[in-house]
Predict the structure of Pleckstrin homology domain-containing family H member 2.
Amino acid sequence: VKHGYSKRVWCTLIGKTLYYFRSQEDKFPLGQIKLWEAKVEEVDRSCDSDEDYEASGRSLLSTHYTIVIHPKDQGPTYLLIGSKHEKDTWLYHLTVAAGSNNVNVGSEFEQLVCKLLNIEGEPSSQIWRHPTLCHSKEGIISPLTTLPSEALQTEAIKLFKTCQLFINAAVDSPAIDYHISLAQSALQICLTHPELQNEICCQLIKQTRRRQPQNQPGPLQGWQLLALCVGLFLPHHPFLWLLRLHLKRNADSRTEFGKYAIYCQRCVERTQQNGDREVRPSRMEILSTLLRNPYHHSLPFSIPVHFMNGIYQVVGFDASTTVEEFLNTLNQDTGMRKPAQSGFALFTDDPSGRDLEHCLQGNIKICDIISKWEQASKEQQPGKCEGTRTVRLTYKNRLYFSMQARGETDREKLLLMYQTNDQIINGLFPLNKDLALEMAALLAQVEIGDFERPFSTPAGHVTNQCKANQTLKQVIEKFYPKRYRDGCSEEQLRQLCQRLSTRWMALRGHSVADCVRIYLTVARKWPFFGAKLFLAKPITPSALGSTFMWLAVHEDGLSILEYNSMRLIVSYVYKSLMTFGGYQDDFMVVINNEHSKDKPTEKLLFAMAKPKILEITLLIASYINNFHQQKAAFHHLSAPALLSARTRGPQARAMGSQPLLSSSRPTKGPTLL
């Protein structure tokens, strides 16, 4: 009710602003009330006059509770609320949003926290010893915080029981899975219902505080659950203030409890920096937190990252580490440039076990990836090695920029060579049998070194010969195209090994760097080096025919290649792609033909495997986005240079740059969508 007029509305409190809508489904509010420093209080019903509220003779609620919000420099707004519980909830949250430390609103726990806030948490205060703020063996009969529904109140009481079970059951091998499921279910409920996040933080602060002796910390498992909790989300004011104070008081590197408190402090800072998590913690995250004190490691978790040359690097991370931060660490450890320059990206395998990969965006958190993968794996392969399967991360090239080749580090070159070999053996790179053998010999020299020729000694000749043959066979299997070795007879295979040994011996004394340089120089002669190839079949009717072909995605555009010879049929620059992506079950590209008046647009449809449609769409989008980012960066670099050219006069004016040149400062770069 406002200015004597009433309206039935749906209210939403976001931060320090109350928005009101026609209905719950409405996206645009009818209005808003700024709450900061507003006066919020309950109106005594006995002095109400109905005509003040119920204008137009329409009774809103026969029995209602009333809250008045009186912002500075504005008239009052009255909220008429149907139930006592809802009135208490609104009164508390509106009071907090207004920045008031009113100690008479909210639950007992909330009122005590407000009292502590008013005395700035004075350590000697008797309030700290109040039973509501301290560890309790019994359950709670009502939530510690004000919650908006009875269903959530019930959940809060169950949540306390779950926390008690987690804290009281001993952590040993048989019970560890019990602890994992308790922690996951409690934290998942808080992610599903964010209203419970303040509640669980308050419950864990309570359960990690003892009354007697003074300030002795609560059970260790309470601290462990708190550590998992603050790695996911943080409570709001004033509970965040209480949490920080609680951790500061207990931080002590001489005790196990104190170490967990210090670790929690780190988690609070990182969660504030990188924001909340999306999903509950994974089995790995819970085990790491329970079985070893994470205080001892600046990065408490670690996971191997695999490379195309068969080796891996273990990388550390914490509960808030994003893919971007993770890759910064990985690049520093392995001597590689940033992904924007190298074009490398992090991939996961598919939790279903299918031969698929998923590229990871830079802002996702590593812990969320591991947890989502773990959940999907359980759903898709129930009962299969429960708890032992974990995500496999691979770091390899995704976008190739010829301009960036000059700055390639030795590690990048080596990995590009192995990635090219992967394309060669799988028939995604055009080369004849002789060249394939040369390339295999170069890889053998890199991986194994000089070829050990079998030398004759009366006794050992046979074994040496066998060993050499075995090595040659392994090299053929690992580095020679499958299509050329399939169907080879024993004799043909023997001759192939013979020819390989001759070429390999010719490389004696060549260093790894030498061989990598030769290999990449040869490979880069193919115009589509670095492109990603996708098998596709045009859907008839099509000028391209109806046989299989390759769609090659590269920095300059999309090219269509013949299936067998891999010769170019047609290329389209990205500027000419009007739209692209999945269309029903196929991949569609709409081309803008500027030069053809009869047919200004051309629609191409290709049958492709469904996961590949998503992959090619995202890859094209990445190349286009990258092009615009480079252009924007170039624009920002060149704007000052354009300004200094003011003196050149007519030539600059002819370019139509007059408005920019006459301005005294560079203009803003293009706005990118």
User: Anything to note?
Assistant: The chain has five domains: 10-45+62-105, 130-292, 314-377+390-398, 410-454+463-524, 532-633. The two ends are 42 Å apart (CA to CA). Residues 314-377+390-398 form a domain with the Ubiquitin-like (UB roll) fold (CATH 3.10.20.90).
